[in-house]
Amino acid sequence: MQTLHFQFITGPIAESSILEMLANQLNNKTGAQSLFIGRVRADEIEDSVISAIDYSAYEDLAYREAEKIMQELQEKFELHYLTILHSIGRVEVNQIAVAIITSSIRRSQAIAACSEAINMIKQRLPIWGMEITQHGQVHWKVNTPTTSHNLSIS
């Protein structure tokens, strides 16, 4: 069974596929799973509201870099499973654009890996988002760095 999986999904990610992956990422040593779901928000830009994001990527490079990211996370957090899905194409407000599932022996490892994974994806993968407003205006999405929070989970 493959323990590391990265995939681009055309359009929004279906909730049912996430639930199926959660169920499939178990073994008799899995004590915890963590799930991150990123949805498109209706942010305001220049007196207009975002209605969708159209994602594009340099896919070959993204797959190679995702493999490196997943190896780093698996080694650092002793993950049993790690799945990362990211949308390509148009994703409407409230639809899922990214999903990350981590499975590990302990919850602290699963949660920390999930949090670090989304930050690494935003920093290192060649994925871009064109924000589309309700009035049809377009703007390149700017990823802002997040502050690392010290999680104290035992």
Write the layout of secondary structure elements.
Elements (H helix, E strand, L loop, with lengths): L3 E7 L4 H10 L7 E8 L4 E2 L2 E10 L1 H19 L3 E12 L3 E9 L2 H18 L2 E7 L4 E3 L14
Parallel strand pairs: 1-5
Antiparallel strand pairs: 2-6, 3-4, 4-5, 4-7, 5-6, 7-8
Helix pairs in contact: 2-3
Question: Could you explain the architecture of this structure?
Answer:
The chain is an alpha+beta fold and 154 residues long. It has 3 helices and 8 strands. Strands 1, 2, 3, 4, 5, 6, 7 and 8 form an 8-stranded mixed β-sheet that branches. β3 and β4 form a beta hairpin. The longest helix is centred in the middle third of the chain and has 19 residues, at 59-77. The protein is elongated, with a radius of gyration of 16 Å. The two termini are 29 Å apart. Mean pLDDT is 90; it is low at 149-154.
Major sheet details: 8 strands, mixed
Helicity, as a percent range: 25-40%
Number of strands: 8
Please provide the ordered H/E string of secondary-structure elements.
EHEEEHEEHEE
Overall 3D shape: elongated
Look at the structure and give the mean pLDDT. 90
What descriptive keywords fit this protein?
3 helices; single chain; eight-stranded mixed β-sheet; 154 residues
